[in-house]
Sequence to fold (200 residues):
Amino acid sequence: MKLLLHTCCGPCTLYPLKALCGMGIQAYGFFHNPNIHPFREYERRIEAMETVAGATGLPMQWDRTGYGLHYWMDELKNKTDPSERCPVCFRIRLEATAQTAVELGFKIFSTTLLYSRYQRHDIILETGRSVASLYGIDFFYHNFRTGWDEGIRLSKEMEIYRQPYCGCIFSEAERYQKRAARLARRLSSDSSEDIETRAP
Fold:
């Protein structure tokens, strides 16, 4: 069986690819992730995905639309809370995958998002099935999280870039909230002391 696999990044592709191979499924990769910001981060993740594809022999279909910051922001329509923005983001990427699958003649598709412990599998599954129904193909669900530790080990062995956040500017801000708060307090304190010292 052949399957079009949406790849969110290089590290998250390694275990799902191994698992699919073990099931006798031949995967073909598709990279469409307009949620990744800023551009340098987008570029680094593509480079990591190229490394993984080259090392594993994974055939890749690359998104031709390029860096999709403005498109992604327009689709969100100011939905910044994770409970609202993540389902929209899943749909953007899975719908593009399903559409590409149909264009390339695939009958089934899946996503490496199912590898992450930090993503809502229930929403991914619901979205995948909904999109699959819309395009007349099937969505393949498998809990790739069972190979979380193995995937980390494989990515470290390959020495590929391992990103510290999901991809979007909102997830980056959420990751560093505590550090940002500490910085704000320090700057506020430094400013007050500086003004008091220099005041006439």
